[in-house]
Every structure is written in C-alpha cells, then in structure tokens.
Design goal:
This protein has 286 residues and is mainly beta. The chain has 2 domains: 85 residues, Macroglobulin (MG2) domain (Immunoglobulin-like), CATH 2.60.40; 164 residues, Distorted Sandwich (Glucose Permease (Domain IIA)), CATH 2.70.70.10. The protein is 14% helix and 44% strand. Strands 11, 14, 16, 17, 18, 20, 22 and 23 form an 8-stranded antiparallel β-sheet that branches. Strands 2-9-8-4-5 form a 5-stranded mixed β-sheet, with no helix packed on it. Strand 22 and strand 23 form a beta hairpin. Bound molecules: zinc ion. The site of zinc ion has 5 residues, from loops. GO terms for molecular function: metalloendopeptidase activity. It holds the Pfam family Peptidase_M23.
Length: 286
C-alpha cells in the first residue's frame, strides 16, 4: 500500500505525457477538400482549406511544383490546372505550411489524372506569316506578356460560369499538336473559334484587363485577370476595345475577331490559364 501514491503520480505523469504527445502528433486541425477527384489532362481541381492554421505561408504541392493559396473570407482556396504535360495517374495534392526553414504537411489527398490522346494538325502558313516566327519575336512577345502579368489580383473577380467570348465553329480544340514546316510546334494552349472578321468578342467573365496590345505572334491580344490566378486570353483580333487596367464585366466588348499575327484566317484564339497552366477552355464555358 505504501507504493500506491507514487504509482498514481507516475500514472498521471504518463497520462499527461501521452496527451501531450497526442496533441503534438495531431497538429493543427485542418480540413482539405478537393473537387473533382478525377480529371482529364486539361482539367482543373479546386482546393479548399479550412481550420486553425499555424503561422507561416500556406502552399499546395501538386504535379512537381508549388501553387499559391488565396484567402477567401474564413478559408483558403486555389485552382490547380493540368495540361498535356501533366503526368497521368494517381497524383498527390499536399497542403503544407512554410515557416522559415521548416515545412509542415497539414493534409494530403490523391486525385486521378486521366491521359487524353490529343490529336495532331498540320498548318500551312504563307511565307510572309511564317517569317514572324523568329526567336526575337518569340522573346519580345514573352516579355510583353510577362510585363502585363507582373501584378495579379488575388481575390475572385469572376461570378457564375464563364461564357464563350464569341459564337462560331471550333476549328482547333485544346491540346492539339501543331505541325508546320515538318516539325512539331507544341500543343495548342486554347481553342480556335472561327468567326467572321470584325465579329464582336466579349469578356468571358468579370475581371481586370492586364494586357490589350498587338503582340508579334498572337496579334491584337487582350488578357483578362479574373483573380485567384485565373486568366483568359483573346488573340489574333482585328481591333481592341479595352485598355490595360480597365475593369470589365461578363459580356463587355473586348475586341473584334481578326487574323492578326500568326494566323491562317479570321478566328479567335481563346485561352484559359489557371495559376500558370493553360487548361481546356471548354471545361470552363460551353
Ligand atoms: Zn489558337
């Protein structure tokens, strides 16, 4: 009987230690939701994180890179895009917090990315048009786009679903491999909608005009920033009806259909970019 009190003390200490160990191991209570769980290459998933988050920078790891998360009232949200280069199969989405040198994993989900057999197309440009395709012109275009997209809006500016910017026949879908001059020139970063020269092109959703100027290869171009890393691109137009910095709403006129830049005829190239990845626009608008 004499040993009982010390035994009890030992038990209390052990229990306290267990509770402490359990709370350390459990870490912060974080809820991660990912939707949908299965996508095809060119699709996107929305990631939402709620809970008591520790100090540090919240980020998502997916497909070999990190993605920003955006504050959205009492939760964090982001969109992860995939393209023909995203490896198909089971892919992990990992939410982690970075605080100085330490990275703590808060939650993890597995999604399935399905492979898509993207078709090929052969394009024939007249020599004058093809002469545009020089390393200097490519670099000039990339620099202009990068300058326009230096600052992006973190808050969501779009509402409801996106609308098609112009009515017409889709002459080239997303992801098609372009062949010209006997070589592959990469996959199509958007869709081509054939429409008469001068046809009105409308904003697919609300946003801020980040670029509205002629580009060497993409011709008269408008880029809209819809917030949270979502951008839409309108290219090869014959006229621009907006200026950089302007706020637009769904359906506002941004330009006119044309065939400026590296184009074989009047059409609108429409692209949707999700945090740096060009996705299939038809999954955003119908
Ligand atoms: Zn195109």
């Amino acid at each position: 009987m004499t040993g009982e009190p010390s035994m009890r003390t030992a038990c209390v200490i052990a229990l306290t230690f267990l509770v402490l160990a359990a709370s350390v191991r459990a870490g912060p209570v974080v809820t991660l939701s990912v939707s949908p769980a299965v996508i095809s290459q060119g699709g996107a998933v929305v990631v939402t994180v709620t809970g008591d988050l520790p100090d540090g920078t919240l980020q998502v790891r997916f497909a070999g890179r990190t993605w920003p998360l955006y504050r959205d009232s009492n939760r964090w949200r982001t969109y992860l895009g995939t393209d023909p280069n995203t490896a198909a199969g089971s892919r992990a989405i990992v939410v982690e917090i970075v605080d100085h040198d330490s990275i703590q994993i808060l939650a993890r989900r597995i999604i399935t990315v399905r492979r898509v057999a993207f078709p090929r197309r052969t394009l024939i440009f007249d020599p004058e048009t093809l002469a545009l395709l020089t390393p200097e012109k490519v670099a000039e275009e990339q620099a202009k786009v990068a300058a326009g997209l230096r600052v992006l809006e973190p808050a969501q500016l779009w509402s409801a679903s996106f609308r098609m910017p112009v009515a017409g026949t889709i002459t080239s879908p997303y992801g098609v491999i372009s062949i010209y001059q006997g070589a592959s020139h990469g996959w199509h970063h958007g869709i081509d909608i054939a429409a008469p020269e001068g046809e009105i092109v409308r904003a697919a959703n609300g946003g801020i005009v980040r670029l509205a100027e002629p580009l060497p290869l993409s011709g008269d171009t408008v880029i809209l920033d819809h917030g949270m890393g979502i951008l839409t691109f309108y290219m090869h137009m014959s006229a621009l009806d907006v200026t950089a910095g302007e706020r637009v709403h769904t359906g506002d006129i941004v330009g006119r259909v044309g065939s400026t830049g590296l184009a074989t005829g009047p059409h609108l190239h429409w692209g949707v970019r999700v945090n740096g990845v060009y996705v299939d626009p038809l999954l955003w608008a119908h």
